Automatic annotation (TrEMBL):
One of its GO terms (molecular function) is kinase activity. It holds the Pfam family KapB. It comes from the Bacteria. This is Kinase. InterPro entries: KapB, KapB_sf. Gene3D superfamilies: Kinase associated protein B domain. It comes from Robertmurraya kyonggiensis. Keywords: Kinase, Transferase.
Length: 126
């Protein structure tokens, strides 16, 4: 695969979320990616002890904001082709998808995650 370059549109995974964005800088092991849309909302809770509720701190994980930039590990960044959805529409769709998945899971982790997602949803779409 050829090296991606500044200005390329990409998908990138970042802390359990997946985003569509544009490369704005290239570093040794990372691409700096400007977020343009959300493809998958980040999971809630402690990423080091997945799907556990009994952890020291159950994290509320927000999606990266529109045009927020983040260093994404090069191995987690792939070329993107196609239309880039509007950020708010993509965020709403990603939130609905994760809520649906969590509502089908009766585990304590899913129920705690759902509470966090619903709180985030109120903040995102006020």
């Amino acid at each position: 695969m050829s090296e991606l370059k500044i200005g390329d549109y990409v998908t990138a995974f970042y802390k359990t979320g997946k985003y569509i964005g544009e490369i704005t800088n290239i570093r040794e092991e990372h691409y700096l990616v400007r977020v343009l849309a959300v493809a998958k909302h980040p999971m809630q809770g402690d990423i080091h002890t997945g799907k556990e509720v009994d952890v020291p701190f159950f994290h509320e994980r927000r999606a990266l904001a529109y045009r927020e930039q983040a260093n994404m590990p090069k191995k987690m960044v792939k070329p993107y082709e196609g239309e880039i959805p509007e950020y708010k529409d993509s965020l709403k769709e990603a939130v609905e998808k994760i809520k649906g998945e969590l509502q089908e899971d009766a585990s304590p982790w899913a129920q705690q995650s759902l509470k966090h997602i619903e709180t985030l949803e109120q903040d995102y779409f006020k």
